[in-house]
Amino acid sequence: MTPAWRLPQLSDVFLSCCETGLGLTEITGDILTFSTAFLSAGARSVISTLWAVDDLATALFSIFYYQEWQQGKNRPEAMRQAQVKLRELAGNTLVASYKPQLTELLKQKREETHTLRKISEAERKACSSGSSEYQQWDEEYKKYDKIGKQIYLSLKNLEKSCQELKPFSHPFYWAAFTCTGIW
């Protein structure tokens, strides 16, 4: 929130990580959030979440939001429409309209992650156990291994969601998103 961090060309920020809309009152009496920081740096609006939202639901929500916004709706209306679309999305529509691209993207990312995991594993093996280099490559290996497992779970969740009538109808999937800033 320092004046040195100004991004005047920044229009919109979409924070898809978990609980990015929650503040920390322990630091000061004010509520400090990532949204506050981005708005102070010059963003016009910030979309954030109040809890950890499913990755697939977040991806679909962001697609719906930007489709609505590009059609000329203001930010709150685009967000509301995106929530409605996500809530009402049928499994068969998910299969027909989104599954092929999402599956291809996830498989591509899985391959990239697998390659990076293999590289970090080879680098780790080249170092002596217990050295700082070994520890760094071990952390890299663990990071890519974890990402690979998350991608695998996302692929499984996509398959499961496609078989459900309305896989994202529960508020857990669509109600966490908030929008702050200029409409």
Question: How would you explain this protein's 3D organization?
Answer:
By secondary structure, this protein is mainly α. Helix content is about 60%, strand content about 5%. It contains six helices and three strands. A three-stranded mixed beta sheet has the order 1-2-3, sandwiched between helices. Helix 1 (about 35-40) links the parallel strand 1 and strand 2 (about 45-50). Helix 2 (about 55-70) crosses helix 3 and helix 4 runs antiparallel to helix 5 (about 130-160). The longest helix is centred in the middle third of the chain and has 35 residues, at about 90-125. It is flat. It starts with 11 loop residues before the first strand and ends with a strand.
In total, how many beta strands?
Answer: 3
Span between termini: 21 Å
Total helical segments: 6
Biggest β-sheet: strands ordered side by side in the sheet: 1-2-3
Low-confidence stretches: none
Secondary-structure element sequence? EHEHHHHHE
| Main pleated sheet | 3 strands, mixed
Mean pLDDT: 86
Q: Please estimate the helix content.
A: 55-70%
Shape: flat
Helix/strand-derived category reads mainly alpha
Amount of beta strand:
5-15%
- As a whole number of angstroms, the C-alpha radius of gyration is 20 Å
